[in-house]
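Board notes, transcribed. Complex of a protein with alpha-D-glucopyranuronic acid.
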Amino acid sequence: MRFTSLLAAASLAVGSAAAQTIKPANYDESKVGSHPLPDPLMDHDGGKVTDAKAWQSRRRAEVFELFQTHVYGRSPAKPEKMLFEVTKSEPKALDGKATRNEVTIYLTGKKDGPSLSLLVFVPNAAKGPVPAFLGCNFNGNHAVHADPGITLNTRWMRNSPDKKNVVDNRATEASRGSEAGRWQVEMIIAKGFALATYYYGDVEADHAEGWKTGLRAALAKDGANTQFAPDAWGAIGAWAWGLSRALDYLETDRAIDARHVAVIGHSRLGKTSLWAGASDERFALVISNNSGEGGAAISRRDFGETVAVLNKNFPHWFCGNYKKYSEHPETLPVDMHELIALAAPRPIYIASAEEDKWADPKGEFLAGKFAEPVYALFKKAGTGVTDWPSVNQPVGDFIGYHLRTGKHDVTA
Ligand code: GCU
């Protein structure tokens, strides 16, 4: 998805950052430049991590801390009390093939506090608890499948360019199933998996001021008047935190095998799934689809979108400290191969699209490639290749990668 009008609106909203001039995107590989990447195995004191135990007990926490401080910000702990309410249940959804539930998750354990609505499809053919895919959606649960029984989301949403699906920042009936191609509910159910998803705007509306009516203000001491610390969480942190709360619910759902939940996301929500997988090691598999800059793509590569562009157009996504790296991303104390490495030893899958040059498909591959030394500590094979694979040649074992033909999207 490209949101040009939102970009314009968001950049006006950021004051001094908006004054910064952004150079045109580079799409010439010969001009990418070369910057050495930080070594994920070099610990804070300059020592080398040589075994899995040292990674797990020491170095992993250091790398995670750097991402919290400089990139995504610090998220709060799990609330002491959680409250879940199944608000709707249809045992014969999808022509009887699935049970469809809607669950309200009260994010602070209080009914008058912020909440998200989780849509869960479980295959009726299952003989026991099933593994699940969990991810945020862009347009409301009702957009994930045309099933008229799914509750229409009534929260703020970005207007749709078709002037039909979302009008005056509210979803219309016309938008039912509008995102279905990205979710493949029937296929997932036929393969014996469950699918759980929530609308990311339930947690925070995706614009520079969205936090004021979202989870971050609800949890802040001074609410919408809060001045966030430079390492406080941004919107991506909040959306990812919502995924962990969704997993808290799935752990209580007896139809779900919560030890086998894959966290998945596309684009900005792919950045979100990577951060959720890094922050919450209960996720068994991490999937990034076209997550690009600020996601899987190496930040030091000047190709397509840059840190400067992200900070200018989406100032609310990352923490305040991230703004320091707009001009010189090579001074970031981490890079995205280390975000991939935070998934280790769990499997991770990075999906790129050939025409999605904005997301720097090669940079997404390289992040997987350069995470391999960490997987090697666990004796797990990575991408299994030395060079960026050609289109439609999926590679990899514990670090999977493919470059699909086509545009920025999720396809079957
Ligand atoms: C914009 C943004 C990307 C983001 C994408 C999306 O293109 O620049 O960083 O991934 O939107 O979320 O669709």
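The first strand starts at residue 83 and ends at 92. The two ends are 17 Å apart (CA to CA).
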